[in-house]
Amino acid sequence: MLAGWIARRGVTPVPSLAEIAWIHLVALGWVSVAALSILLHALPNFIDVERWRCEPLARVALAVAAAAIAALVGAFLFAPHALAGVAAVLALALAVYLLTAWWTLGPALHAPDRIARAVARAFAVLFGVFAIVVVLGVLLAAMLSGSAVPLWVARLPSAHATLALFGWLTLLVYGVSARTLRPITGVRAQRPWMHAVYGSATLLGAPVLALGAALIVPAVEWIGGALLAAGALGYALDVGESLRRATVPHRPPQAFVAAGVVWLLVALVLGAGTLRGAAWQSAFGFVLLMGWIGAMVNAHMLHIGVRLIATIYRGDEDETRPQALLDARASWSAFVCAQAAVLVLALGLLGAGEAFRLAGAILGFLGWIATIVALAGATRTARLGAGV
Questions:
Q1: Helix or strand holding residue 328 (H, E)
Q2: How far, in Å, are 110, 117, 120, 180, 215 from residue 114 at the CA level?
Q3: What is the pTM of this model?
Q4: pLDDT digits (tens, 9 = 90+) for 75-116
Q5: Is the pLDDT of residue 320 over 60?
Q6: Residue 14 — left, alpha, or beta (φ > 0 → left; ψ -120 to 50 → alpha)?
Q7: Rounded distance, CA 187 to CA 378, Å?
Q8: How many CA atoms lie within 13 A of 116 on its CB side?
Q9: CA torsion through residues 56, 62, 67, 71, sign
């Protein structure tokens, strides 16, 4: 709905506060809250520890963070002078969550299992990057609210966005999918070492690109972009092989994964054009957020999320059977609408006009409704089967 409102108002070369509100609504309010919520359940399993340390505190902190994100979006739209205070509350809540996360990772960093140690190190670094993103966000919020900040803070927007999109969200998808693609496809990764390669390339490329953007040094930006492209290509090859050999008959999540990888590669082309001076920045950010990251979130909601529903209500941990709970028509409608929305709205941002942007927003809204219908139907079916 916010995207449709922005489409009617018009998109500017320099992102307006409304556009920045939309970006944070998606990146923080949808993707990050979903990821941090799921990690409360999944992270201990990923690193073979018994439980999340101080989980009740982490849950309260996440609830406060979610409320603060809603307030942040409202402040961008209606009360920019309040941005600094709201951002400070959000940062504090996320700091509490991250401290409990690092405490949970502690035992796994010294575990005898090599894979558990590697996964724990990766998440420790990932949470560290997220902490840096949050700190930069607080500084920028203070600037936008009219507070006195150093002059160099004005150079941070691109660095903040780069670290958020690649250093936090993209690396988060890489890390989580290393453990979740097997249940989604039914196939073990054929080249486990590839994860270290594309993860390392992205972990190095994100800060290099951010530094180049902050210092306005094109050569450094291109080096960072090349590293990110190498990481994305490695990920695409690795995931493409798993999808080609998939045995799980639950296809909509696999389709979302495939679409997400395609949109990631499209975003890289748009990013390269942006570095060359083309006015593709808005389309690049949109495709990266909704085409790449959004598709991967939907894939996990329609498979991993439904597995959790089955486990909660039926004690059924068979990872090949989520499709038994889902309405195929709703799942495929969600897929078709979501991909059409990304395509049409991206074309609108590339110059096709307001009608395309508005149509894309409407298609995205319909796709989200279809996703809700699919998940609500799965929950209802699971509850009825369990006699709840």
A1: helix 328-347
A2: 9, 5, 10, 19, 39
A3: 0.92
A4: 999 999 999 999 999 999 999 999 999 999 999 888 888 878
A5: no
A6: beta
A7: 24
A8: 17
A9: positive
